[in-house]
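The following block was generated as part of the benchmark described in Methods. Ligand: guanosine-5'-triphosphate.
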Amino acid sequence: MHIEAASQQKLPITILTGFLGSGKTTLLNYILTERHGHRIAVIENEYGEVDVDSDLVLASDEEIFQMQNGCICCFVDVRNDLIDVMKKLLSHKDKFDHIIVETSGLADPTPVATAFFVDRNVAEEVELDAVVTLVDAMHIDQHLYDPVLDGSDNQAVNQIVAADRILVNKIDLASEEALGSLEGSLRKLNQTAPILRSTYGQVDLSNILGVKGFRPSYVRERAEILDIDMDDDSDAHGHHAHDCHDAACDHPDHDHGHHHHACTDASCDNPDHHHHDHDHGHKNTAALRPHSHDATVKSHSFVYPEAFDGEKLGAFLKDYLGEHGDDIFRTKGIVSVAGDNRFFVLQAVHKLVDFRPDHAWGEDARKSKFVFIGRNLDRDGIDRSLRACLVS
Ligand SMILES: Nc1nc2c(ncn2[C@@H]2O[C@H](COP(=O)(O)OP(=O)(O)OP(=O)(O)O)[C@@H](O)[C@H]2O)c(=O)[nH]1
Protein backbone atom coordinates (compact mmCIF):
# COMPACT_ATOMS: atom_id res chain seq x y z
CA MET A 1 0.00 0.00 0.00
CA HIS A 2 2.71 2.32 1.10
CA ILE A 3 4.86 1.73 -1.96
CA GLU A 4 1.94 2.21 -4.29
CA ALA A 5 1.00 5.52 -2.73
CA ALA A 6 4.57 6.79 -3.07
CA SER A 7 4.90 5.72 -6.68
CA GLN A 8 1.72 7.55 -7.57
CA GLN A 9 3.00 10.79 -6.13
CA LYS A 10 3.63 12.95 -9.16
CA LEU A 11 5.49 16.22 -9.27
CA PRO A 12 3.11 19.10 -9.89
CA ILE A 13 3.95 21.55 -12.68
CA THR A 14 2.66 25.09 -12.80
CA ILE A 15 2.84 26.82 -16.16
CA LEU A 16 3.23 30.53 -15.68
CA THR A 17 2.20 32.47 -18.73
CA GLY A 18 1.05 35.95 -19.71
CA PHE A 19 1.87 38.50 -22.37
CA LEU A 20 5.20 40.36 -22.50
CA GLY A 21 5.63 42.48 -19.40
CA SER A 22 2.52 41.24 -17.59
CA GLY A 23 4.51 40.42 -14.44
CA LYS A 24 5.56 36.76 -14.71
CA THR A 25 9.09 37.29 -13.40
CA THR A 26 7.73 39.56 -10.65
CA LEU A 27 5.32 36.83 -9.55
CA LEU A 28 8.07 34.22 -9.83
CA ASN A 29 10.32 36.30 -7.58
CA TYR A 30 7.47 36.69 -5.11
CA ILE A 31 6.91 32.94 -5.11
CA LEU A 32 10.63 32.21 -4.70
CA THR A 33 10.95 34.50 -1.73
CA GLU A 34 7.73 33.67 0.08
CA ARG A 35 7.47 30.92 2.65
CA HIS A 36 4.88 28.61 1.24
CA GLY A 37 6.31 25.23 2.09
CA HIS A 38 7.02 24.24 -1.53
CA ARG A 39 10.55 23.56 -2.77
CA ILE A 40 10.48 24.90 -6.27
CA ALA A 41 12.46 24.23 -9.44
CA VAL A 42 12.07 26.69 -12.28
CA ILE A 43 12.36 26.31 -16.03
CA GLU A 44 12.57 29.68 -17.72
CA ASN A 45 12.22 30.52 -21.35
CA GLU A 46 12.94 33.84 -22.91
CA TYR A 47 12.08 35.29 -26.26
CA GLY A 48 15.15 37.09 -27.51
CA GLU A 49 18.68 35.96 -28.08
CA VAL A 50 20.31 37.84 -25.20
CA ASP A 51 19.35 36.56 -21.80
CA VAL A 52 18.33 39.33 -19.42
CA ASP A 53 15.68 37.48 -17.43
CA SER A 54 18.08 35.31 -15.48
CA ASP A 55 19.71 38.50 -14.16
CA LEU A 56 16.31 39.68 -13.03
CA VAL A 57 15.32 36.56 -11.12
CA LEU A 58 16.36 36.98 -7.52
CA ALA A 59 19.19 34.82 -6.32
CA SER A 60 17.73 31.88 -4.49
CA ASP A 61 18.53 28.33 -3.55
CA GLU A 62 15.99 26.97 -5.97
CA GLU A 63 16.99 25.18 -9.11
CA ILE A 64 16.71 27.48 -12.09
CA PHE A 65 17.08 26.09 -15.59
CA GLN A 66 17.30 28.32 -18.61
CA MET A 67 16.01 27.44 -22.01
CA GLN A 68 17.51 29.97 -24.37
CA ASN A 69 17.65 27.91 -27.48
CA GLY A 70 14.27 28.91 -28.75
CA CYS A 71 10.78 29.43 -27.59
CA ILE A 72 9.10 26.61 -25.75
CA CYS A 73 5.87 27.43 -27.47
CA CYS A 74 7.47 26.21 -30.67
CA PHE A 75 6.37 22.74 -29.90
CA VAL A 76 7.84 20.88 -32.81
CA ASP A 77 11.30 22.45 -32.66
CA VAL A 78 11.92 22.72 -29.00
CA ARG A 79 9.79 20.05 -27.45
CA ASN A 80 12.68 17.64 -27.15
CA ASP A 81 14.80 20.27 -25.41
CA LEU A 82 12.03 20.91 -22.93
CA ILE A 83 11.68 17.19 -22.30
CA ASP A 84 15.48 16.92 -21.88
CA VAL A 85 15.53 19.74 -19.34
CA MET A 86 12.65 18.10 -17.53
CA LYS A 87 14.47 14.77 -17.47
CA LYS A 88 17.58 16.45 -16.07
CA LEU A 89 15.44 18.02 -13.38
CA LEU A 90 13.76 14.73 -12.59
CA SER A 91 17.14 13.05 -12.13
CA HIS A 92 17.47 14.97 -8.86
CA LYS A 93 13.88 15.36 -7.92
CA ASP A 94 14.64 14.79 -4.25
CA LYS A 95 15.65 18.49 -4.14
CA PHE A 96 12.24 19.95 -4.93
CA ASP A 97 8.57 19.14 -4.89
CA HIS A 98 7.11 21.57 -7.41
CA ILE A 99 8.14 22.76 -10.87
CA ILE A 100 7.29 26.13 -12.38
CA VAL A 101 7.70 26.63 -16.11
CA GLU A 102 7.72 30.30 -17.06
CA THR A 103 6.88 30.60 -20.73
CA SER A 104 7.97 33.45 -22.93
CA GLY A 105 5.51 36.31 -23.18
CA LEU A 106 4.70 35.36 -26.77
CA ALA A 107 4.04 31.70 -26.09
CA ASP A 108 0.85 29.78 -26.43
CA PRO A 109 0.99 27.69 -23.23
CA THR A 110 -1.10 24.82 -24.52
CA PRO A 111 1.61 23.03 -26.50
CA VAL A 112 3.92 23.46 -23.51
CA ALA A 113 1.36 21.85 -21.22
CA THR A 114 0.76 19.08 -23.68
CA ALA A 115 4.47 18.35 -24.19
CA PHE A 116 4.85 16.76 -20.78
CA PHE A 117 2.23 14.17 -21.57
CA VAL A 118 3.66 13.08 -24.87
CA ASP A 119 6.89 11.69 -23.42
CA ARG A 120 5.87 8.63 -21.49
CA ASN A 121 8.77 8.70 -19.01
CA VAL A 122 8.08 12.29 -18.09
CA ALA A 123 4.31 11.78 -18.02
CA GLU A 124 4.73 9.07 -15.42
CA GLU A 125 6.51 11.44 -13.07
CA VAL A 126 4.75 14.77 -13.42
CA GLU A 127 1.26 16.17 -13.41
CA LEU A 128 0.05 19.55 -14.46
CA ASP A 129 -1.09 21.56 -11.50
CA ALA A 130 -2.37 24.62 -13.33
CA VAL A 131 -1.81 27.05 -16.15
CA VAL A 132 -1.62 30.44 -14.43
CA THR A 133 -2.06 33.38 -16.78
CA LEU A 134 -1.05 36.89 -15.80
CA VAL A 135 -2.87 39.79 -17.36
CA ASP A 136 -1.46 43.33 -17.40
CA ALA A 137 -4.47 45.39 -16.30
CA MET A 138 -3.11 48.49 -18.04
CA HIS A 139 -1.95 47.12 -21.39
CA ILE A 140 -3.90 43.96 -22.12
CA ASP A 141 -6.50 45.66 -24.32
CA GLN A 142 -3.78 46.70 -26.77
CA HIS A 143 -2.96 43.02 -27.24
CA LEU A 144 -6.37 41.38 -27.01
CA TYR A 145 -7.75 43.70 -29.64
CA ASP A 146 -4.58 44.09 -31.66
CA PRO A 147 -5.68 45.41 -35.06
CA VAL A 148 -2.65 43.91 -36.81
CA LEU A 149 -3.67 40.45 -35.65
CA ASP A 150 -7.37 40.80 -36.25
CA GLY A 151 -8.70 37.43 -37.33
CA SER A 152 -5.40 35.61 -36.92
CA ASP A 153 -3.43 33.91 -34.18
CA ASN A 154 -3.23 36.01 -31.04
CA GLN A 155 -1.04 34.75 -28.20
CA ALA A 156 -2.60 37.08 -25.65
CA VAL A 157 -5.98 35.48 -26.32
CA ASN A 158 -4.57 31.94 -26.38
CA GLN A 159 -2.95 32.50 -22.99
CA ILE A 160 -6.26 33.52 -21.44
CA VAL A 161 -8.19 30.70 -23.07
CA ALA A 162 -5.72 28.13 -21.72
CA ALA A 163 -5.75 29.43 -18.13
CA ASP A 164 -6.85 27.51 -15.06
CA ARG A 165 -6.23 30.66 -13.00
CA ILE A 166 -6.19 34.21 -14.31
CA LEU A 167 -4.29 36.80 -12.32
CA VAL A 168 -5.14 40.38 -13.24
CA ASN A 169 -1.91 42.09 -12.24
CA LYS A 170 -0.96 45.80 -12.01
CA ILE A 171 -4.32 46.72 -10.55
CA ASP A 172 -2.60 49.82 -9.14
CA LEU A 173 -2.53 51.14 -12.72
CA ALA A 174 -6.24 50.65 -13.54
CA SER A 175 -9.50 52.09 -12.24
CA GLU A 176 -12.12 49.92 -10.59
CA GLU A 177 -14.36 50.52 -13.57
CA ALA A 178 -11.67 49.42 -16.04
CA LEU A 179 -10.99 46.32 -13.95
CA GLY A 180 -14.67 45.37 -13.93
CA SER A 181 -14.91 45.74 -17.68
CA LEU A 182 -11.65 43.81 -18.20
CA GLU A 183 -12.87 40.96 -16.04
CA GLY A 184 -16.04 40.84 -18.11
CA SER A 185 -13.98 40.46 -21.29
CA LEU A 186 -11.79 37.80 -19.69
CA ARG A 187 -14.86 35.86 -18.64
CA LYS A 188 -16.04 35.75 -22.23
CA LEU A 189 -12.75 34.19 -23.29
CA ASN A 190 -12.57 31.74 -20.39
CA GLN A 191 -15.74 30.87 -18.58
CA THR A 192 -14.30 28.69 -15.84
CA ALA A 193 -10.97 29.95 -14.50
CA PRO A 194 -11.14 31.89 -11.24
CA ILE A 195 -10.06 35.49 -11.84
CA LEU A 196 -7.81 36.94 -9.11
CA ARG A 197 -6.28 40.40 -8.74
CA SER A 198 -2.79 41.46 -7.71
CA THR A 199 -0.24 44.22 -7.49
CA TYR A 200 3.34 43.12 -8.16
CA GLY A 201 2.14 39.51 -8.26
CA GLN A 202 1.26 39.52 -4.58
CA VAL A 203 -1.50 37.01 -4.25
CA ASP A 204 -2.44 34.31 -1.81
CA LEU A 205 -0.22 31.57 -3.22
CA SER A 206 -2.57 28.81 -2.15
CA ASN A 207 -4.68 30.06 -5.08
CA ILE A 208 -1.77 29.58 -7.46
CA LEU A 209 0.28 26.58 -6.29
CA GLY A 210 -1.02 23.14 -5.45
CA VAL A 211 -4.44 23.89 -6.85
CA LYS A 212 -4.74 20.78 -8.98
CA GLY A 213 -6.76 22.83 -11.35
CA PHE A 214 -5.82 20.94 -14.42
CA ARG A 215 -8.08 18.40 -16.04
CA PRO A 216 -6.23 15.56 -17.78
CA SER A 217 -9.04 15.36 -20.28
CA TYR A 218 -8.20 18.91 -21.30
CA VAL A 219 -4.67 17.86 -22.20
CA ARG A 220 -6.05 15.05 -24.28
CA GLU A 221 -8.56 17.32 -25.93
CA ARG A 222 -5.86 19.82 -26.82
CA ALA A 223 -3.57 17.06 -28.05
CA GLU A 224 -6.32 16.01 -30.42
CA ILE A 225 -6.78 19.53 -31.65
CA LEU A 226 -3.03 19.91 -32.12
CA ASP A 227 -3.01 16.57 -33.90
CA ILE A 228 -0.51 15.04 -31.51
CA ASP A 229 -0.69 11.29 -31.35
CA MET A 230 -0.83 10.27 -27.72
CA ASP A 231 -2.12 6.78 -28.39
CA ASP A 232 1.30 5.15 -28.05
CA ASP A 233 1.35 6.25 -24.48
CA SER A 234 -0.21 3.15 -23.02
CA ASP A 235 0.01 3.31 -19.27
CA ALA A 236 1.50 0.92 -16.77
CA HIS A 237 -1.63 -1.24 -16.74
CA GLY A 238 -1.08 -2.00 -20.38
CA HIS A 239 -4.04 -0.12 -21.75
CA HIS A 240 -4.35 3.21 -23.41
CA ALA A 241 -5.03 5.95 -20.93
CA HIS A 242 -8.11 7.20 -22.69
CA ASP A 243 -9.62 3.73 -22.77
CA CYS A 244 -9.94 3.44 -19.01
CA HIS A 245 -13.58 3.00 -18.13
CA ASP A 246 -13.11 2.03 -14.51
CA ALA A 247 -15.33 4.47 -12.63
CA ALA A 248 -13.46 3.77 -9.39
CA CYS A 249 -10.05 4.46 -10.90
CA ASP A 250 -8.62 7.79 -9.85
CA HIS A 251 -5.51 7.68 -11.97
CA PRO A 252 -5.08 11.32 -12.95
CA ASP A 253 -4.02 10.46 -16.49
CA HIS A 254 -7.15 8.50 -17.20
CA ASP A 255 -9.92 10.29 -18.91
CA HIS A 256 -13.09 8.64 -17.84
CA GLY A 257 -15.15 9.51 -20.79
CA HIS A 258 -15.41 13.26 -20.25
CA HIS A 259 -15.02 14.49 -23.76
CA HIS A 260 -15.41 18.15 -23.04
CA HIS A 261 -14.70 19.24 -26.54
CA ALA A 262 -17.96 17.67 -27.61
CA CYS A 263 -19.98 20.19 -25.61
CA THR A 264 -20.99 23.06 -27.82
CA ASP A 265 -23.96 24.23 -25.80
CA ALA A 266 -23.40 27.94 -25.22
CA SER A 267 -25.84 27.99 -22.32
CA CYS A 268 -24.09 25.12 -20.54
CA ASP A 269 -22.37 26.27 -17.36
CA ASN A 270 -20.79 23.02 -16.32
CA PRO A 271 -17.35 24.09 -15.06
CA ASP A 272 -15.80 20.92 -16.49
CA HIS A 273 -16.74 21.96 -19.98
CA HIS A 274 -14.35 24.25 -21.72
CA HIS A 275 -16.15 26.75 -23.87
CA HIS A 276 -13.69 28.67 -25.94
CA ASP A 277 -16.02 31.48 -26.66
CA HIS A 278 -13.95 34.13 -28.35
CA ASP A 279 -15.56 37.47 -28.39
CA HIS A 280 -14.71 40.30 -30.75
CA GLY A 281 -14.15 38.05 -33.71
CA HIS A 282 -11.04 36.33 -32.34
CA LYS A 283 -10.53 32.82 -33.51
CA ASN A 284 -8.62 30.36 -31.42
CA THR A 285 -6.32 29.62 -34.27
CA ALA A 286 -3.79 28.07 -31.91
CA ALA A 287 -5.73 24.96 -32.74
CA LEU A 288 -4.88 25.35 -36.38
CA ARG A 289 -1.36 26.69 -36.18
CA PRO A 290 -0.04 25.38 -32.90
CA HIS A 291 3.30 27.10 -32.76
CA SER A 292 3.05 30.22 -34.83
CA HIS A 293 4.35 33.42 -33.33
CA ASP A 294 2.97 36.78 -34.13
CA ALA A 295 5.37 37.11 -37.05
CA THR A 296 5.18 40.88 -37.01
CA VAL A 297 6.84 41.03 -33.59
CA LYS A 298 10.63 40.98 -33.59
CA SER A 299 13.22 41.04 -30.86
CA HIS A 300 16.49 42.96 -31.14
CA SER A 301 19.32 42.68 -28.67
CA PHE A 302 22.28 44.97 -28.08
CA VAL A 303 25.40 44.39 -25.98
CA TYR A 304 27.99 47.07 -25.14
CA PRO A 305 31.17 46.57 -23.11
CA GLU A 306 31.48 50.33 -22.48
CA ALA A 307 29.72 52.23 -19.67
CA PHE A 308 26.75 54.53 -20.21
CA ASP A 309 26.02 58.07 -19.18
CA GLY A 310 23.02 57.22 -16.96
CA GLU A 311 21.24 60.54 -17.36
CA LYS A 312 21.59 60.64 -21.10
CA LEU A 313 20.38 57.08 -21.41
CA GLY A 314 17.41 57.67 -19.09
CA ALA A 315 16.37 60.72 -21.10
CA PHE A 316 16.73 58.90 -24.43
CA LEU A 317 14.65 55.93 -23.26
CA LYS A 318 11.89 58.15 -21.93
CA ASP A 319 11.70 60.15 -25.18
CA TYR A 320 12.10 57.21 -27.52
CA LEU A 321 9.59 54.94 -25.82
CA GLY A 322 7.26 57.89 -25.33
CA GLU A 323 7.24 58.27 -29.10
CA HIS A 324 7.41 54.63 -30.23
CA GLY A 325 5.98 52.82 -27.20
CA ASP A 326 2.79 51.77 -28.96
CA ASP A 327 4.86 49.58 -31.24
CA ILE A 328 7.56 48.62 -28.76
CA PHE A 329 5.89 46.14 -26.41
CA ARG A 330 8.78 45.43 -24.11
CA THR A 331 12.26 46.73 -23.34
CA LYS A 332 14.60 45.19 -20.80
CA GLY A 333 18.17 45.83 -19.91
CA ILE A 334 21.06 45.48 -17.52
CA VAL A 335 23.19 48.60 -17.71
CA SER A 336 26.65 49.57 -16.60
CA VAL A 337 26.59 53.27 -15.65
CA ALA A 338 29.87 55.19 -15.49
CA GLY A 339 30.95 56.21 -12.00
CA ASP A 340 28.47 53.91 -10.27
CA ASN A 341 29.35 50.46 -8.99
CA ARG A 342 25.76 49.30 -9.14
CA PHE A 343 24.06 47.33 -11.84
CA PHE A 344 21.17 49.37 -13.31
CA VAL A 345 17.99 47.64 -14.42
CA LEU A 346 15.85 48.89 -17.26
CA GLN A 347 12.27 47.66 -17.37
CA ALA A 348 9.77 49.12 -19.78
CA VAL A 349 6.36 47.98 -20.91
CA HIS A 350 5.24 50.12 -23.85
CA LYS A 351 5.72 53.74 -22.70
CA LEU A 352 6.07 52.97 -19.02
CA VAL A 353 9.79 53.15 -18.26
CA ASP A 354 11.56 52.16 -15.09
CA PHE A 355 15.35 52.63 -14.99
CA ARG A 356 17.07 52.39 -11.65
CA PRO A 357 20.11 51.09 -9.77
CA ASP A 358 20.02 47.62 -8.30
CA HIS A 359 22.74 45.71 -6.50
CA ALA A 360 26.54 46.11 -6.86
CA TRP A 361 28.28 44.40 -9.78
CA GLY A 362 30.69 42.66 -7.46
CA GLU A 363 32.77 40.11 -9.37
CA ASP A 364 30.51 40.14 -12.42
CA ALA A 365 31.98 41.53 -15.63
CA ARG A 366 30.41 44.92 -16.30
CA LYS A 367 28.62 45.00 -19.60
CA SER A 368 25.31 46.37 -20.76
CA LYS A 369 22.61 44.30 -22.45
CA PHE A 370 19.34 45.48 -23.93
CA VAL A 371 16.40 43.67 -25.51
CA PHE A 372 13.74 45.57 -27.48
CA ILE A 373 10.65 43.59 -28.54
CA GLY A 374 8.03 45.04 -30.83
CA ARG A 375 6.94 45.92 -34.32
CA ASN A 376 8.64 48.10 -36.93
CA LEU A 377 11.81 48.34 -34.87
CA ASP A 378 14.59 50.43 -36.35
CA ARG A 379 17.52 48.33 -35.23
CA ASP A 380 20.25 50.57 -36.60
CA GLY A 381 18.57 53.71 -35.31
CA ILE A 382 18.26 52.27 -31.80
CA ASP A 383 21.87 51.11 -31.88
CA ARG A 384 23.07 54.59 -32.97
CA SER A 385 21.00 56.28 -30.27
CA LEU A 386 22.23 53.92 -27.56
CA ARG A 387 25.85 54.43 -28.63
CA ALA A 388 25.32 58.18 -28.42
CA CYS A 389 24.62 57.66 -24.68
CA LEU A 390 27.94 55.87 -24.01
CA VAL A 391 30.56 57.86 -22.13
CA SER A 392 33.30 58.71 -24.54
N1 LIG B 1 2.92 49.31 -11.43
C1 LIG B 1 3.12 47.99 -11.44
N2 LIG B 1 4.18 47.47 -12.08
C2 LIG B 1 4.35 46.13 -12.07
C3 LIG B 1 3.46 45.27 -11.40
N3 LIG B 1 3.89 43.99 -11.56
C4 LIG B 1 5.02 44.07 -12.31
N4 LIG B 1 5.30 45.35 -12.62
C5 LIG B 1 6.42 45.87 -13.42
O1 LIG B 1 6.19 45.51 -14.79
C6 LIG B 1 7.43 45.28 -15.44
C7 LIG B 1 7.40 43.92 -16.10
O2 LIG B 1 7.35 42.91 -15.11
P1 LIG B 1 7.98 41.45 -15.33
O3 LIG B 1 7.69 40.66 -14.11
O4 LIG B 1 9.39 41.53 -15.78
O5 LIG B 1 7.08 40.94 -16.55
P2 LIG B 1 7.24 39.58 -17.39
O6 LIG B 1 5.88 39.11 -17.66
O7 LIG B 1 8.17 38.63 -16.72
O8 LIG B 1 7.92 40.14 -18.72
P3 LIG B 1 8.50 39.29 -19.96
O9 LIG B 1 9.44 38.28 -19.40
O10 LIG B 1 9.18 40.30 -20.82
O11 LIG B 1 7.34 38.70 -20.66
C8 LIG B 1 8.50 45.43 -14.38
O12 LIG B 1 9.01 46.75 -14.46
C9 LIG B 1 7.75 45.22 -13.09
O13 LIG B 1 8.34 45.88 -11.97
C10 LIG B 1 2.34 45.83 -10.72
O14 LIG B 1 1.48 45.16 -10.15
N5 LIG B 1 2.22 47.21 -10.78
